[in-house]
User: Fold DUF917 domain-containing protein from Pseudoroseicyclus aestuarii.
Amino acid sequence: MSTQITAEDLDAVALGGAFLGTGGGGDPYIGKLMAKAALLEHGPVTLIDAAELPEDALCVPVFMMGAPTVMVEKLPAGTEVLAALAQIKQIMGRKATALVCAEAGGLNSTIPFAVAAVTGLPLLNGDGMGRAFPELQMCSFTMHGVKATPLVLADDKGNAASFTTIDNLWTERLARAATVEMGGAALVAAYPMTGAQAQASLLHGTMTLILEIGRTIQEERRAMRHPGEALRALTGGHKLMRARVADIRRETTGGFVRGTATLRGIDEDAGRSFTVDFQNEFLVARDDTGRVLTTTPDLICALDGDAGLPVTTESLRYGLTLELTGIPADPQWRTEAGLTLAGPGYFGYDHAFAPVEALLSTS
Amino acid sequence: MSTQITAEDLDAVALGGAFLGTGGGGDPYIGKLMAKAALLEHGPVTLIDAAELPEDALCVPVFMMGAPTVMVEKLPAGTEVLAALAQIKQIMGRKATALVCAEAGGLNSTIPFAVAAVTGLPLLNGDGMGRAFPELQMCSFTMHGVKATPLVLADDKGNAASFTTIDNLWTERLARAATVEMGGAALVAAYPMTGAQAQASLLHGTMTLILEIGRTIQEERRAMRHPGEALRALTGGHKLMRARVADIRRETTGGFVRGTATLRGIDEDAGRSFTVDFQNEFLVARDDTGRVLTTTPDLICALDGDAGLPVTTESLRYGLTLELTGIPADPQWRTEAGLTLAGPGYFGYDHAFAPVEALLSTS
Assistant:
């Protein structure tokens, strides 16, 4: 089933991506501007299912890599990702058949639309995470044995770096170091894969889910309702808390934004307090007894408590009210392979993974 | 004129390279071992002048990049530079005609011999620095408009990175970041150039000069003489001091070893004291009044005060006696273009460049 996505749909894409981006994946406003301009100039983008592609098609994910705080201040020039794609074409000896979204996020689910519009290529209805994650090996492509290389990284100045590595973790390390040197953010084409590999490894339907989430946010806001409840119904999510940011510790190191927000409960949660850790994306939410409420790889998605718009980790500030929702990750993330890639242990936590629905039922 | 270099010559190459390497360019012992094994297995290496090559020949410099202290502990696997060369061949669409030495140094003037032996390619009699410098854009190739890219960096684990950049300083920045991530040292093939470019940009004769310096050290030591005087006669050098290391401050940061050695004069220099700054290589020598005795890009070459063997910055230690010689750099380094690349200002010093022969005559 193919769907036409027009410039008008991009507000919803940016909103939905930002919600599913669990605080990361880039600023929805910048992403929307970039992609809207491209679709207005070049026309709509065709969203297709991986099953519609020939087995030997060449599918190429495109995305931005770096610390979200940097992305807000250092806008892409627009040509970087085309330069990266051109190098992938040279290395692979042929042109991409379709583009792929690597992760959900305000920026990283809109960039593929911009590139699809400019190149005239279709975009697959799926992604590699079903959310955003801070490191590039954390994706279903890795779980299905797709190599991240050849990977090409391009900056706004005209520099590019490409890598061939022994595994996707090494690709992450080398590409991250180059990203830091390029100023903290760079655009990437990577994980070139066949149509058969895309069919096997993609988390299918992410792009239409993003669109549906975005439209739900728009509709609920138009109806003067906070969209939290409707989004939980749509995604199988659980309300974690309504709270106000009391303290925020954040540092940009090694190409990531890492930190912890301390939250004081409001409304029905008044009197309680919470912490939420993040590395670009939200990783772990806890209450004041230290009990884990939701942990990576399950999703922690934030909406502004009043306006109902998605909140990214870089926009967290003292006094902001939040409504946090815990959402079960795609079942692949809850397998041993998924937890090895992006479970609590990988991020240095002692706690074992437990599903959000189990954590919230044991109170 | 072509010369055959045999395994037996490599002791002299390693010694001569280490002397001209101004404290950097890698450990002569490791370099000698690597290259000797290759020449014993594959036979001698042919040293040729760039003038003997066709104008459209493809000449490729090969070298190790990283902090010398790391190179001592992290030996190359031997296959890295061949992997890098293979990628250069793929990018350039043809095989190298000849190899090039990028810089003088214990390791970096022996590695090209090892690679030449294994590949059967001739090695050009010249290099890009006439000494060692810490950063890869600091070479005569840059002064003659040769691009460092395509540059391929390979590590001992099987990872490789390649770059296309807007200038050689950006290549240095990106390659340095990847080198740090690869563990602090990596092998490189870069600056692919035509025979005509090699003829125009090479500092000719460096390899035979290195051999001559190494043989002089061997002969003087056999005759129970300290080789300092004979080396100064050979290189037009000036004795700076004989001294003992009293203090050494050294840190490995950003892929470099940076530091300062404080020296107390001995013998004819008893009662004086000195400091020598380094970033991989020796940069500036001063006496206790702060007067500059020799400054980059002129060479500061160190011999053990007793044994007469070259001393690298990573082997500096408390109590070691040194004899330091200041040598005029190649005239190209003393031009505005040369000083912009590697003069005192580039390294953050306030003093203007003055030739060692002028500095020592104004006392």
